[in-house]
């Protein structure tokens, strides 16, 4: 495969500046010329050399390998170019940022089956509820509820519709009564959740006659740990709120009981999201395919996980 040497300064400028506009200023050309030149280089390689959004630009794993090779003698550069351009195997490090409440992704079977199918891919999964630019932070993809994903991302459904539920133990409801309307939660002991110590407790969201509203409960107990929240509710410590799948095993066993179901309609669930599809790395393409197959009706573990 022939290398267009005129594209190498464009690549290096973008790699070193971390910004297409700054690279254009450095080269004395337009931003459009840099973008088009970089896209031609990626098309020749057949793989993305950077992850880019409207907010940030970051070298991919292939981009980093190519940048390192450019510091070597020309024969080594050509060898690295041919390797990057011809490498279609899913391999390398795949970093994913996942919300702590994405139960289906974190439950184990999906990750285990992907690792079995793709031994050349090393998965690094960070569980976090912080909101940030995954590209700028060095992640290849993320898993979040659809409503909080940036519009310039590509999103692939991971779950079917989700639904929030209000739950407490049978003992709590027997002693304190069951609320009939969300406003009555103000008179109950509540267990709240927050994504981080600096964040306010999550507002409990409901809907009545097609109109959405939320209730700012004042929890007596607040935590950023779902396990503590569940255990406290199981022990009769109060009423709590989260996604239905989080509580499903305990509801099925009768250890927790739902309330206010009529005020909690379903909504779009979790998505695997990532930057544009163009010249996608094989490792990320493999994960997307795996998620789609896992979600397909009748796919065994995927159906059983719901």
Can you characterise this structure?
- The chain has 306 residues and is an alpha/beta fold.
- The chain has 3 domains: 5-86, Winged helix-like DNA-binding domain superfamily/Winged helix DNA-binding domain (Arc Repressor Mutant, subunit A, Orthogonal Bundle); 92-160 and 268-304, D-Maltodextrin-Binding Protein, domain 2, CATH 3.40.190.10; 164-263, D-Maltodextrin-Binding Protein, domain 2 (3-Layer(aba) Sandwich).
- 36% of the residues lie in helices and 21% in strands.
- It contains 12 helices and 14 strands.
- The strands form 4 sheets. It has a 5-stranded mixed sheet, covered by helices on one side. The chain has a 5-stranded mixed sheet with strand order 11-8-12-7-13.
- Strand 1 (50-52) and strand 2 form a beta hairpin.
- Helix 4 (61-69) packs antiparallel against helix 5 (74-86).
- Residues 300-306 have low confidence and may be disordered.
List the helices and strands and how they pair.
Blueprint: H1 8-17, H2 20-27, H3 31-45, E1 50-52, E2 57-59, H4 61-69, H5 74-86, E3 92-98, H6 103-106, H7 109-117, E4 121-127, E5 141-145, E6 154-157, E7 164-168, H8 170-176, E8 190-193, E9 204-208, E10 211-215, E11 221-223, H9 226-234, E12 239-243, H10 244-252, E13 257-259, E14 270-274, H11 282-295, H12 301-304
Parallel strand pairs: 3-4, 3-5, 8-11, 8-12
Antiparallel strand pairs: 1-2, 5-14, 6-14, 7-12, 7-13, 9-10
């Amino acid at each position: 495969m022939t290398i267009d040497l005129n594209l190498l300064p464009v690549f290096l400028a973008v790699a070193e500046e971390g910004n297409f506009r700054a690279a254009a200023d450095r080269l004395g050309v337009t931003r459009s010329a840099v973008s088009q030149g970089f896209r031609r280089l990626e098309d020749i390689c057949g793989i993305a050399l950077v992850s880019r959004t409207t907010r940030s630009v970051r070298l991919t794993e292939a981009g980093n390998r190519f940048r390192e090779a450019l510091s070597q003698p020309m024969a080594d550069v050509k060898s690295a170019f041919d390797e990057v351009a011809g490498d279609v195997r899913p391999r390398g490090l795949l970093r994913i940022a996942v919300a702590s409440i994405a139960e289906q992704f974190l439950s184990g079977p999906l990750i285990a089956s992907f690792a079995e199918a793709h031994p050349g891919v090393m998965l690094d999964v960070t569980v976090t509820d912080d909101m940030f630019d995954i590209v700028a932070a060095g992640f290849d993809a993320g898993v979040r509820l659809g409503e909080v994903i940036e519009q310039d991302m590509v999103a692939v459904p991971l779950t079917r519709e989700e639904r929030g539920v209000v739950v407490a133990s049978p003992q709590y409801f027997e002693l304190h009564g069951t609320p009939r309307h969300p406003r009555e939660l103000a008179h109950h002991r509540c267990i709240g959740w927050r994504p981080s110590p600096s964040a306010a407790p999550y507002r409990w969201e409901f809907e009545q006659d097609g109109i959405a509203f939320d209730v700012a409960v004042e929890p007596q107990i607040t935590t950023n740990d779902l396990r503590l929240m569940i255990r406290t509710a199981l022990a009769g410590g109060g009423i709590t709120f989260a996604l239905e799948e989080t509580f499903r095993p305990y509801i099925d066993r009768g250890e927790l009981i739902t309330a206010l179901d009529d005020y909690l309609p379903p909504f779009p669930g979790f998505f695997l999201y990532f930057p544009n599809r163009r010249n996608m790395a094989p490792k990320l393409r493999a994960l997307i395919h795996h998620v789609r197959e896992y979600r397909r009706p009748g796919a065994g573990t995927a159906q059983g996980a719901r």
